[in-house]
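Input sequence (457 aa), recorded before submission:
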Amino acid sequence: MKTICLNFQIHQPFRYRKYRFFDIGNDSYYYDDYANETILRKMADSCYLPANHILLKQIRKCKGKFKVSFSISGIALDQFKLYAPEVIDSFKELAATGCVEFLSETYANSMASLVDDQIFAEQVKAHDDLIEALFQQRPKVFRNTEMIYSDELGDLIYRLGFETVITEGAKHILGWKSPNYLYCNALNPRQKVLMRNFRLSDDLSFRFSNSSWNEYPLTASKMANWLVELPKNEEIVNIFVNYETFGVIQKKNSGIFDFLDSLPEMILKSKELSFSTPSEAVKVLQPVSAVHVLHPISWADEERDLSAWLGNELQKEAFNHLYELKERVKKCTDPALLKDWTYLQSNDHLYYMCTKFFSDGEVHKFFNPYGNPYEAFINYMNVLSDFTLRLNTLVPINENESELTKLKLAFEEKTKKLEEAELELKQLRKPKATKQKVGTEKKIVTKPKKAQKTASK
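Predicted structure, token format:
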């Protein structure tokens, strides 16, 4: 029997306000609260809440035979807490069914796995701690940011405690092989590798409402038939899409919610198909061979590489400048600075700087707050410059910087004391000025009388 793993990604970055050069060193609040709340509320009302309602209904209707998994970034959960706490409540309802698995990933949906093992491990732990606190479930399967994976990264992920990882079933990696099997890591055969079926995933996410597509319209019964018609010996089909496919990338009037509502029953009608979560699937399947990935792959664009985030000089400069600060950030204990550091690492900031045609990640295009990649770069670098100044204050880069920091702190302290003294002086002067005014009025009234008495004497 073929098993279907239906996986959804949820991530929303904290967007930055228009941060000008003259704000550097003067204003360290970077976020566009209005845009963040507006977009998150729109996503919650258009996608997360109605889609969660359908999934919960189908799980109950199918009596536990319908199962899904979610990969939700810590940053997205932070925004749910701020702007749409009812979304978290709806995920708690899904988690309570026992039919939903939450995958592990980096807290910030960052590229940390490419540069620093310690930062990467800390972000994974922070994410999984939050998932466990909210949903009473410790993630067992790992999905790296944008499905970034290589043999070495897979081995690192295994050493973090994850025996299973999900990545892209890229053509240039698999060649003639099918993504519909379980594989293992070429360096560490103990690690199991699930491969995304990008054709079926993209049919749903990007081609669903395309009337010029030769398979339009895509219905639940058609999708189920495609799955049945796959070669009999293929064991698992991993469909992995942005959750915003439902109601945002594909609008409600396209029929996408009707499709989601019908799909579980259509698939379960066939005795050849079933649903499972990734951790359930790998318990019963055995790897058919190793998959060799020498250079990092991802699920973005036609190239399925890192060029969506590190494909031009703007992106590389921003990326390098950010992680040049990593050793000093490790010495920092300031909560506000560490939170800003986490949010700065979100891969979306680099994605906005991409100068090539986007063939994936459509939801990012919808909400890109910048007119062009150069605006994105300038705004990000301004924010990063202010962050660096704040970091220099807390963790100086050298002795000269340390001395300058001490002088700056001393100057700020003296300035603060002067401002307090001036305020106190103003308060002391205020009542005295009132008394003088009254006294002056009395003198004006009494002076002529004294003058007359003196003249008569």
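Checked by second reader. The mean pLDDT is 90.
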